[in-house]
Each structure stands twice: as structure tokens, then as C-alpha cells.
Predict the structure.
Amino acid sequence: EVQLVESGGGLVQPGGSLRLSCAASGFTFSSYEMNWVRQAPGKGLDWVSYISSSGNTIYDADSVKGRFTISRDNAKNSLFLQMNSLRAEDTAVYYCARGPRYFDLWGRGTLVTVSS
Amino acid sequence: EIVLTQSPDFQSVTPKEKVTITCRASQSIGSSLHWYQQKPDQSPKLLIKYASQSISGVPSRFSGSGSGTDFTLTINSLEAEDAATYYCHQSSSLPWTFGQGTKVEIK
């Protein structure tokens, strides 16, 4: 089955760190560009980060630049998001999404809550 | 940053009615506009890519049109299962952005 499964979310204090993972299966992960998109509770969608299929090209939203780092391990069919210096406004469901320009496959998301 | 503004924010519609959602970009984005459907407690699902290109497996009652700054998602003959929030998304220039969403409720 073609799918993406996120993990690693949880409750973290402001200023803390968290590492999200996304496991891909059912397709040739190494051939696809990937993204992280988040959704704050009751709010709309917010693109976070992009990584090319090789991992050589990365783009980040200004709101996370310098704090979040996207990476991938093509040998393990996995995508990651290292989140540092977390803020209350980073509280959201984080989705990994496949695609260079449009997102044709989404995971179910993992909830990150930043609160003291 | 390109701002996408959807209208309306909310629409209450009777089954079999036609639904039209518009998405206006703050500057020209060509055809780099995509539409998603998100049902409650689910992840988004791609409906239309590049303004008007259909997606395999998506019912034919969903269609898109437009270019430049003005785009439209049309749902012909709305069904109960179409109750959801719909988002437009531009990939013309970074940062990629989404519209604020349009919630469609079934009367």
C-alpha cells in the first residue's frame, strides 16, 4: 500500500526540541521530493519545509528558518524534521506530503504541542 | 509572499446543488494552483492540480478552471460525502502558500 506514516509528536516545553519522522512505503521514495506541512488546531494549512529527492536542495518557510531542519534517509525510506527552539505557535499537526509542486500523498499527521 | 484569498469562507448547500469556490492570488501565478479537500479528522486529499488537471480516482463532479490570479473549484451535483473544507495552494513561488479554506456544509 502506498502510504506515509508520521511519528515523533508529543508535548514539549517552549524552547525544547523534537524530531519527527515519516516512514514511506509502497513507492520509490528516493525518486520523490518531499515536504512538511502543518496545521494548527482549527486552522488552515501551512507549508513548512521542502527537500529534493537527493536531499541536496532544501527550502524552509521563514517562520521556521534557523530552527527546523528537514532531512531524509533514502536507504531507510524516511523523512525527518528536526525542530529546535520550539514556540507555542509551532503547536500543530505535522503532515509529511509527497510532491514537488502539488502534494499528491499525505500522511495522517502527528500532533506537536508546545506548552509549559 | 503570494497571498491566496478564498471565497466564501463558508457555504451551506443542498445535495445535488452546484458549488463554486473561488481563489484569488495576490499576483499572477500562471496555472500553478492546486485544490485539496479535507474532511474532519482526515488529512488533505489532492483534487485538482495545475488549475484544471484532473486527478485519478477523484469523482468527475470536481473540476477546476482559471489562470493568472483568479481560479475556481466547481463541484457539480454536490453529494453528502463532499462535506469538507477545501483549500487552494500555489506553487508558483516560494514560500508555497495555501488559501484560508472554504468550509462546505450539507443542508
Q: What stands out?
A: The mean pLDDT of chain B is 97. The two ends of chain B are 36 Å apart (CA to CA).
